[in-house]
Amino acid sequence: MWQNKTKHYNTQNTALSLWASFLIPNLVPMRIPFLCVLYPNACNSPLPFAFCVLLIFSSPLFLLIITIHKETSKTMVHYSRKPQVSSKSSKAKVSDLRCHYKNTYETANVINGMSLRKAQQLYRQVLAKTRCIPFKHYNGKTGRTAQAKEWGQTKGRWPRKSVVAMLSLLKNAEANAIEKGLDANKMVIKHVQVDQAARMRRRTFRAHGRIGPYMCSPCHVQLFMSEKKQRVPAPKSAPKK
């Protein structure tokens, strides 16, 4: 008796699944949930017929809600801050940058608030070693240099790899600004942020059969810059009579 009921329910569920597939031909991704519901593995008794019909008719609404949620939350890049006027700003970001996090942190924070041209000039001078990047936060065992006096610091370095990466990121942001019709000579860096990325693990083989960690410290960098507002002189007040 139990086997006959099982065959009867399986036949009914097969008809329901086929009917749902033909009734809603556009919902191809939803056919797999239908089959999973109509063929429960945990219990021998299937779901009631009325509940299956309700589930089939309510699935387009569920798919519509999921689609709207994906469209509204579909942003390619997430930034911790937003510019005040997005039409007058340009963004740039790089993920999993193969540069040391601490060096890139100091290299990026020094240009926060600078104009685009001044930041590019600073980085080129750092590559020529006529100016340095001040190390304010991560300055443990960092050598002292006289070039750090202009920043009110005593320690500084010339992190070439981080500087080259930041120059490339600034070039990307400049290209985005030109694409939006903005004047690159008036762009000012308003936001720079460097975050730690997942460490990439490698191994180094030591003496006596030991294996030690050999990891790198990549980082994520994001920035945006905005066009500087022009100062409008106040109108001269009329002389009092």
Automatic annotation (TrEMBL):
Alphabetized UniProt keyword annotations: Membrane, Ribonucleoprotein, Ribosomal protein, Transmembrane, Transmembrane helix
Pfam families reported in the protein's UniProt record: Ribosomal_L22 (PF00237)
Gene Ontology cellular-component terms listed: cytosolic large ribosomal subunit
Membrane spanning residue stretches: 16-40, 46-66
GO term, biological process aspect, one: cytoplasmic translation
Database matches in CDD domains: Ribosomal_L22 (cd00336)
InterPro entries, A to Z: Ribosomal_uL22, Ribosomal_uL22_CS, Ribosomal_uL22_euk/arc, Ribosomal_uL22_sf
Record-level Gene Ontology MF annotations: structural constituent of ribosome
Family designation: Belongs to the universal ribosomal protein uL22 family.
Annotated PANTHER family: 60S RIBOSOMAL PROTEIN L17
Identification of the protein by name: Large subunit ribosomal protein L17e
Protein species of origin: Strigomonas culicis
